[in-house]
Amino acid sequence: MPYPHARYYMFAVIAVVIAGFWPSYFSVWTKVPWQFHAHGVAASIWVTIVTAQCWTAHSKKQLELHRMIGKASLFLFPFLIAGLCGIIDYTGKGYVKADDPLRMMFGVSFLVALGVAVAAYVTVYYRALKYRRKVWVHAGYMLSTPLILFESPFSRIMSMVVPAFAINGPADAGHLLPSIEWAMAIELAIIALIWLRYREKANPFLVTAAFIVVEMLALGLLKDWAPARTLLLAIGHAPSAAVVGTGFTIGALTSWAGWQAGKRRAAPPIGGMAVAA
Predict the structure, then answer these.
(1) Which of 10, 36, 48, 251 has the most CB atoms in a 10 Å sphere around its CB?
(2) Residue 213 domain-assigned?
(3) What range does the domain containing 225 cover?
(4) pLDDT tens for residues 40-50?
(5) Other beta carbons within 10 Å of 270
(6) Which pLDDT value is given to residue 270?
């Protein structure tokens, strides 16, 4: 089976998520808005599922469990995208209220970045389902999903330990985007190392890398993009149920379309009888 050491990579991802989000989420669990829970719970379960897939893929005795966990991801994915849209909703509502200097400065950038992240998840997961019978392709796409938002907890860690990225007040707001960009650069370095080790077998990671590059460019170049600002204001005034429900619908359609695309096709009829391919 591909990527025999992927389980350790996933443990590292879990450690980064816990450390990065500990101050702003896990340690203040009862005080955060519901949108944080919608995203945090779904994303945490998703990372756990991918980790479990890594363990069960390498034992013939556990392959049935591997398939069961994979089918469970079909039902989780809509909640994953809905959770991301919950953060988009929170960003829009805060932007309208003007309740946070950082959100006022970078709200448009956050919206664009989150939009790219949603597109990345939809693309990568759809392709993981479509090519689920090609183990290297399927594994590559599933293992690349944690990288899509890896920059978020990792950039927080850097702001905690690297003085140049520390944010101690409004005067340090300019440190935010560089910490995110550097976190994304590290993501690209990780992907480069994986590709150098496995070459064309790791091509699915290059798809994720392309989205990361788009996100980096968008963060740097579109922070004052008028159409995104208009959309952010519209989201801020829209019912939260509509924003989150849109994400859930996108996720559900992705699960359905990916599953259908990966089904075995019937071979041309032989003597009037269809033969499963």
Answers:
(1) 251
(2) yes
(3) 6-276
(4) 999 999 999 99
(5) 8
(6) 59
Longest dimension (CA), the chain: 77
Closest alpha carbon to 247 in 79, 112, 75, 114: 79
Number of domains the chain contains? 1
DSSP string spanning 154-181?
HHHHHHHH-GGG---SGGGGGGHHHHHH
Q: Please count the residues of the chain.
A: 277
Measured CA to CA, the distance from residue 132 to residue 218 in angstroms comes to 31
Low-confidence ranges of the chain (pLDDT < 70): 1, 266-277
Please state the φ and ψ torsions of residue 98, each to the nearest 5 degrees.
Answer: 55, 45
Q: Rounded to an integer, what distance in angstroms lies between the CA atom of residue 123 and that of residue 262? A: 14
Q: What is the per-residue pLDDT for 51?
A: 92
pTM of the model: 0.91
Is 1 domain-assigned?
no
